């Protein structure tokens, strides 16, 4: 891709993110590819964002996740960990809880992502409290849309109430967790959602 065909950066502060991500993936992805993906990530997040204060930072994080997924699909260095993708409708409650708890308890044994088929403007306010009680880190959690490369990179796709909108890719292991939507639920019920099925999933992953 020539420089003239690159999409213009929607925010010039993204240029620093392009440089960081291109350096991280030097020899794997070109700066042009990184810039195009970061521009797309920013546009996708901006479509639902109500507050744009941290949009540049979140777009870089989202792009980093997408690039890692692409590297996994291509069999690049460091792509050997099993990858688990949690998908729900809004990526604001159930999938955020499950992904953060699995990442915490797996302690580096697995790469974890989450996404929404119709992402919300922000993560539910109770997420941080419930995860903090479990010793898991909710810092930086944000709702993000489902993208092709993240689905293609997943070894296990866990759907959580997104119905027909959830992706189906041949050759993947699919699990459907009928976990109730925590939106508006009492905090005690949300704590039960937090712990649902994670132990069983961990026991099924490679040592």
Automatic annotation (TrEMBL):
InterPro entries: Phosphatase-like_N, Ptyr_pPase, Ptyr_pPase_sf. It comes from the Bacteria. Gene3D superfamilies: 3.40.50.2300, Corynebacterium glutamicum thioredoxin-dependent arsenate reductase, N-terminal domain. Keywords: Arsenical resistance. Residues 82-204 form the Phosphotyrosine protein phosphatase I domain. PANTHER family: ARSENATE REDUCTASE. This is Low molecular weight phosphatase family protein.
